[in-house]
Design a protein that fits this description.
Layout: E1 28-33, E2 67-73, E3 76-85, H1 90-106, E4 111-122, H2 124-139, E5 143-146, H3 151-164
Parallel strand pairs: 3-4, 4-5
Antiparallel strand pairs: 1-2, 2-3
Helix pairs in contact: 1-2
Length: about 170
Amino acid sequence: MIPDDSPAPRSTPGGPPSGAGPEPPPVRIHVVARTLRGEPRGAELPAPPVGGPLDPARDGGRVAVPTVVTREEAGALHVVLTGDVDLALAGELALVEEQVRGHCAARPRARVHVDVRAVTAVDATAVRFLERLRRAAAHAGGSCTTSPARPVVQRVLDLARPVAEGELATS
């Protein structure tokens, strides 16, 4: 579990803390990521800064280390994928899939949202993972949504969707 780095409410002299009022529900965050030991080898990259995954638009096109972060907020489970989502991340994806199944089993009409905006590449592992999440949510009477992806990633997901749904077009 990562400690909460959010700033505490500030007090103004002689007044209540800023942001006083009803407190929002707590947010649980679970990070699943590979850790690199020693110097990076080959295609391995150093871990992203503490502030979170790299945003290529903001960080000069640098590529983020593949990570999976989940957080539960307002009854919905948010899954944030970063970097290349491929076979190398399969173990972490399996852990998240179990977490999603538990979330869906514990709540009627469970909501799951997958953020793929920072995904740089996908393979069949990622396609299967997304389809399993969608089916787990649907089986529990809930829903699974996905954010818009980069064009190259979205193209793969769009092409794979009919195959995952068993609607392979005839040629």
